Amino acid sequence: MEQQIKDIFGNNLFLFVAGLIAFLFKNTIEKFAAAVFVFFGNDYNEDDIVMINGRPGRIVRVGWTKTTFFLYTIQDGIVSGGTKLVVQNEKLSSMNIEKPLENLEIPKNAQKS
Q1: pTM of this prediction exceeds 0.70
Q2: What is the CATH number of the domain that holds 78?
Q3: Is 41 within a domain?
Q4: Is residue 108 a part of any domain in this protein?
């Protein structure tokens, strides 16, 4: 029986260890996957103008684990201050981030209610 146990674990030890590591580091693996999608994706790029919860801002840095935004405070059409917001990349998908579109000329015949 001892030999059978050695044979089973000896042949499948690599799979057992890989599964154990994946289970133990699940959170780290998920964070890394989110970082890869944000870093190599084209959804968020440095210098993009964005709106976060209705507040204007700019993406300053997109890193492997976090993204940095400068959010502006505007009074009477003038930037009067702002804040720096750093967000972990895996949390970006749950945020309300909008990219404003350029002003578009819409032909009158296309404006139907």
Answers
A1: no
A2: 2.30.30
A3: yes
A4: no
* Two tokens, residue 21: 């590591």
Q: Which residues does 35 contact at the CB level (< 8 Å), separation at least 6?
A: 63, 64, 65, 89, 90
Q: Report the SS3 class of residue 19.
A: helix
CA distances from residue 68 to 81, 84, 91 in whole angstroms, order as listed:
17, 7, 12
Half-sphere exposure of 69 (CA within 13 A, CB side): 22
For residue 4, give the DSSP letter. Answer: H
In a domain, 109, yes or no: no
- Segment 28-43, tens digit of pLDDT: 777 777 777 776 777 7
Q: How many structural domains does the chain have?
A: 1
Does a structural domain hold residue 14?
Answer: yes
